[in-house]
Amino acid sequence: MLRQLLQVVVWTLGIYAVLWVATLLVWPPEAAPRNVDATRGQHSVYGSDIREVVYSLPGFCQKLSSRPDVRRIIVLGSSSAKAYRPDILRSRLGADEVDNLETDGSNISQIRQLVTDLRTETARGSLKSVLFVLVTNYILFVSNKDKWHGGFTYYEAEKVRHGLYTGEANGITPVIGPRLMRFAVEALRPVFALDTLLGLSDGIGVELVRRFWSHPKVDVEFVRMLKRRFPQAQQSEFGEEQFIELDRLIREIRASGGDIMFVEQPIEAFERTSLPIHSEYWTKMVRFAKEHDVVLVDMSESAGDKEFSDPLHGKESVWPEWTERLASALRGLASGLVAEENKGARCHSEPLDVQKAVHSVGASARLDRDENTRNAETPFEGLIDCVSGHRE
Predict the structure, then answer these.
(1) Beta strands in the chain (DSSP E)
(2) Are 354 and 302 in contact (CB under 8 A)?
(3) Torsion of CA 118, 122, 127, 131, to 10 degrees
(4) What SS3 class is residue 390?
(5) Distance from C-alpha of 178 to C-alpha of 64, rounded to nearest angstrom
(6) Over the Cα atoms of the chain, what is R_g?
(7) Distance of CA 152 to CAs 105, 145, 247, 267, Å?
(8) Nearest-angstrom CA–CA distance, 314 and 77
(9) Class of the domain covering 8-389
(10) Which of 83, 284, 352, 389 has its CB 3.0 to 4.6 Å from that of 385, i.e. a possible disulfide?
């Protein structure tokens, strides 16, 4: 009996080893990637953006701990934040590293859970050279009750899915130490591959919806969805819970030695002009940024409706252009090239008028990039001075 059991174990391990090698052939791991980019999950064994973030995090935290002086930008947000490409931002802003840790379907609570892991799983002082760029929009302010119905966030659900973490909602903890976590993640490659294969049909359906999005002036189903998600949208307490979460997020990032700025993402015209939800949100967002001394860059009108694949997401083909626009605005913010009529927004929490800013900095930004007339470190350092210096 013992011999038969041993044979079963050996055969099982052998088959698993073959499957593990097969996943390496189908989804070869990238050799020492310099950063974390959630969109790699679309082509990796993990099969989704949020899994790419969850299972890259143990190695990423070790890197943060071992290199605390690296000048780093970390992009946060929901799925729409994937438009901002790390390589372009790094080269245009002169940062040492740029990481995109967007997590699909987020509200502020889910983003705060991710940042909490970055703070608690890294050595003290690891975030002192990090600037967090939070890509904001009104969808991030759906309450936890309406978003998660009292259960796990998507981020938490993915963490507990394969037994590497345990606990209840808002109380997830790893079952093994950080040094072993990376090896455990690698060992689970066949499991991730199976999940990815099972999820391919869902991905195809989403892609078909986006491909045939017709850009109506007002999409009735989209508005109905918003009303379901924001039942209190016309009331004064709109987003109150998530603004409290955002306040905590800011305080925690600053306490860790890092800093944060907001970038309001591009959205279609009908959302800006026809949705009371957005109007209510934007009034509160501007006031919140001012009260908390957070730089707010408004990119909401920086894209035409034809650039969207759905009301909140840019087509993948325009991602580089969107990133260039943001980089130009941030370079202007850092170097003081923003038009005077922005009333000092370059180092203040008043929302930056990107239409004027891009117009005023575009020529010099292109000159700097093409002719190497400016020290590559200057934009990042100027941005850090802008974001943190105006609070002193």
Answers:
(1) 72-76, 97-100, 130-136, 165-166, 173-174, 259-264, 296-298, 308-310, 313-314, 352-353
(2) yes
(3) -30
(4) coil
(5) 13
(6) 22
(7) 12, 11, 21, 28
(8) 14
(9) alpha beta
(10) 389
List the structure tokens of 109: 């609570």
Report the percentage of the chain scoring pLDDT > 70: 77
- Retrieve residue 207's tokens: 């892609």
User: Domain boundaries in the chain?
Assistant: 8-389
Residue matched to tokens 């309001």: 264
Beta bridge partners of 313: 310
Token pair belonging to 82? 């994937």
Amino acid letter, residue 85? R
Crossing angle between the packed helical segments 240-255 and 108-120, to the nearest 10 degrees: 20
Decide: 192 and 46 in contact? Cβ < 8 Å. yes
User: What are the structure tokens assigned to 138, written together?
Assistant: 């009104």
pLDDT tens, position by position, 328-374: 999 988 876 543 333 333 344 455 554 444 433 333 333 333 333 34
Q: How far apart are CA 272 and CA 30, in angstroms?
A: 40
Query: What whole-number distance in Å separates Cα of residue 175 and Cα of residue 193?
Result: 22
Q: Over the stretch 196-208, which tens digit does the pLDDT of each residue have?
A: 777 654 444 444 4
Structure tokens at 186: 């690698």
Q: Give the list of residues 6+ apart from residue 116 with CB closer than 8 angstroms, or none.
A: 252
Inter-residue contact 39 to 100 (CB < 8 Å): yes
Banded model confidence at residue 275, pLDDT cuts 50, 70, 90? confident
- pLDDT number for residue 348: 43
C-alpha distances in Å from residue 122, one per residue of 65, 249, 259, 306: 5, 17, 16, 42
User: Each residue of 59-110: pLDDT tens digit?
Assistant: 899 899 999 999 999 999 999 999 999 999 999 999 999 999 999 999 999 9
Count of CB atoms situated within 10 Å of the CB of 251 = 11
> Across-strand partners of 296?
262
Find the Cα–Cα–Cα–Cα dihedral 177, 181, 187, 192, rounded to 10°: 130
